[in-house]
């Protein structure tokens, strides 16, 4: 058996998001979000599930922090719900909302767990969506008021701040593909949303510096790694476009202040173009302290303009194993993403802010959840992180998704990603086998293979 050691001080964490775990959707002054609306739109979410109760973490956070302590993690990534802080997105500040997150952060710190706070994980106040949402540049200014409120409330307590989680999902998945709230299907709207979110990111970084907030700030895009089926030029180019849709379109402007020109030209052929105002690109390229990388899957495909996606990319099924949500298991892709970032953008510190697997294993007769497939998935991906570190990539930490089973967006409660099993009827948490495996990894700081 070989031992693969991680660097001293490597961060082992777990992640959740506000809408997916908190519940308490109308308590203590919280306003409605676009996800509250989306869940109540027939046919949008599996069996009409919603986040009204979710994992009830709003009331159970103290017990959940104890479980984190038992897990042995040194950091917990969570998001703040904008509608809890400013219920209509632009009006009065809700002190009860601030109190909840102060209490959560204090509880984490009391148990020796550093918070990583994500400012936006998709729950836009519905009142702002009614005025155009992220496609309306005025939303940027409202967002800055919200983040300034959170910065000042938690300055000195939170050391790691992420502006946005998965801007591709905020823009293209939600406004072009229409699978997530607000469920629109318009390419130009999606491009506008992507650009305005990136401008909001840049302005947030600038505000962070101007206010002198202690700690570090970054962003957490979702990535994938699509390979060409052959070395034919059309296959190579189609795979690059598809890969670039997630990776290049968001990473390159953040890291260099420039959009990838080949994708700009491709979008223009499809009738879409970013509406860039003077100073936007400099703002977007404001220096960040770290990159958060979310990675789950990848694939192989070829150029097929008739049956492919908007980039002419058609995935070719390679017979790979899939998780229960239907995503390819492709650990090598994580290594490829990390080395690509190092190659293209230099030695930026990186945290794996999400990585995990959906397996819907239920408790056995003895109450034990035997999720060996999740353990294998995590092991394979953690090993690729170790490979990347030994190849010179500056990876500082790893957060598994997710701490607990939760509301999985359009899939409702039908898909389970947690290392804690949640019985949604009783809200009981059950430690899966993967919880115990991850605890050993976090405590030892090495992996046995």
From TrEMBL:
<keyword id="KW-0326">Glycosidase</keyword>
<dbReference type="InterPro" id="IPR017736">
    <property type="entry name" value="Glyco_hydro_1_beta-glucosidase"/>
</dbReference>
<dbReference type="GO" id="GO:0008422">
    <property type="term" value="F:beta-glucosidase activity"/>
</dbReference>
<dbReference type="InterPro" id="IPR033132">
    <property type="entry name" value="GH_1_N_CS"/>
</dbReference>
<feature type="active site" description="Nucleophile">
    <location>
        <position position="354"/>
    </location>
</feature>
<keyword id="KW-0136">Cellulose degradation</keyword>
<dbReference type="InterPro" id="IPR001360">
    <property type="entry name" value="Glyco_hydro_1"/>
</dbReference>
<keyword id="KW-0119">Carbohydrate metabolism</keyword>
<comment type="similarity">
    <text>Belongs to the glycosyl hydrolase 1 family.</text>
</comment>
<dbReference type="InterPro" id="IPR018120">
    <property type="entry name" value="Glyco_hydro_1_AS"/>
</dbReference>
<keyword id="KW-0378">Hydrolase</keyword>
<dbReference type="InterPro" id="IPR017853">
    <property type="entry name" value="GH"/>
</dbReference>
<protein>
    <recommendedName>
        <fullName>Beta-glucosidase</fullName>
        <ecNumber>3.2.1.21</ecNumber>
    </recommendedName>
</protein>
<keyword id="KW-0624">Polysaccharide degradation</keyword>
<dbReference type="Pfam" id="PF00232">
    <property type="entry name" value="Glyco_hydro_1"/>
</dbReference>
